[in-house]
Amino acid sequence: MDKTSLRQKYKALRSDFSLDQIDEFSLQIANQSLKLDIWDLEFYHIFLTIENQKEINTEYILHIIFGKDANVVIPKMRGQDLEHYLLTDTTKLKLNQWNIPEPVNGIKIDPQQLDLVFVPLLGYDTLGNRVGYGKGFYDRFLSSCKKDVIKVGLSFFPPDEDILEVDDYDIALDYCITPKAVYTFKQS
């Protein structure tokens, strides 16, 4: 399936979920994440939920990270790129023009410091290729991270068989966590 069709498909599927369903699935995803051997790292990058897009509620995963005494880093859109800031008790958040919660200011973090990135997506395939919202923010961002950064997608759905039109600049996931399973794409 092509990327445009996948975007439409998964936006439509997510639009049918109630807030209670999203919350329950998000908790299941956080519980599934505990099956991965990823919880002894130092810097975790995570997106904050865009509620009107019916995205996964990342608060449950945030609680896990903070419980491990690790550093949480969150993105802020800056032109066509993302900047990254440490999330602390004093970080002030504000919705941007697309209703994405972002830090107002704070301690800037270089992408090379990141050990793991939780990646937002609409769909993905059995090879770990992902489809986002189509603006390329995460592909540009991931290309600036260290080579061995762990890329973990979060999805309500299992993978599609195949995404057509995978581009050279597309960066595949290492894992994707769903409410029922963890999919592994990482090549050893």
Describe this protein's structure:
By secondary structure, the protein is α/β, with parallel strands linked by helices. It has one domain: Rossmann fold (3-Layer(aba) Sandwich). It is 23% helix and 22% strand. It is built from four helices and eleven strands, in the order ααβαβββββββαβββ. The protein has helices at 3-15, 19-33, 59-67, 137-143, and strands at residues 43-45, 71-78, 81-86, 93-95, 101-103, 116-119, 123-124, 130-131, 150-154, 175-177, 182-184. The strands form three sheets. It has a seven-stranded mixed β-sheet with strand order 3-2-1-6-9-10-11. A hairpin with a 5-residue loop joins β4 and β5. The mean pLDDT is 92.
- Helicity level: 10-25%
The total beta strand count reads: 11
The CATH topology: Rossmann fold
The chain-level structural class is alpha/beta
Q: What is the CATH domain class?
A: Alpha Beta
| Rg over alpha carbons | 15 Å
Number of helices: 4
Indicate the mean pLDDT.
Answer: 92
**What is the CATH superfamily classification?**
NagB/RpiA/CoA transferase-like
Strand content: 15-25%
The count of domains is 1
Task: Give the overall form.
Answer: globular
CATH architecture: 3-Layer(aba) Sandwich
Summarize the main sheet: 7 strands, mixed
Order of helices and strands: HHEHEEEEEEEHEEE
Distance between the termini: 28 Å
* Neighbour order of strands in the largest sheet: 3-2-1-6-9-10-11
Unreliable runs: none
GO molecular function: 5-formyltetrahydrofolate cyclo-ligase activity; ATP binding; metal ion binding
Binding site for substrate: 50, 55
GO biological process, one term: folic acid-containing compound biosynthetic process
Catalytic activity: (6S)-5-formyl-5,6,7,8-tetrahydrofolate + ATP = (6R)-5,10-methenyltetrahydrofolate + ADP + phosphate
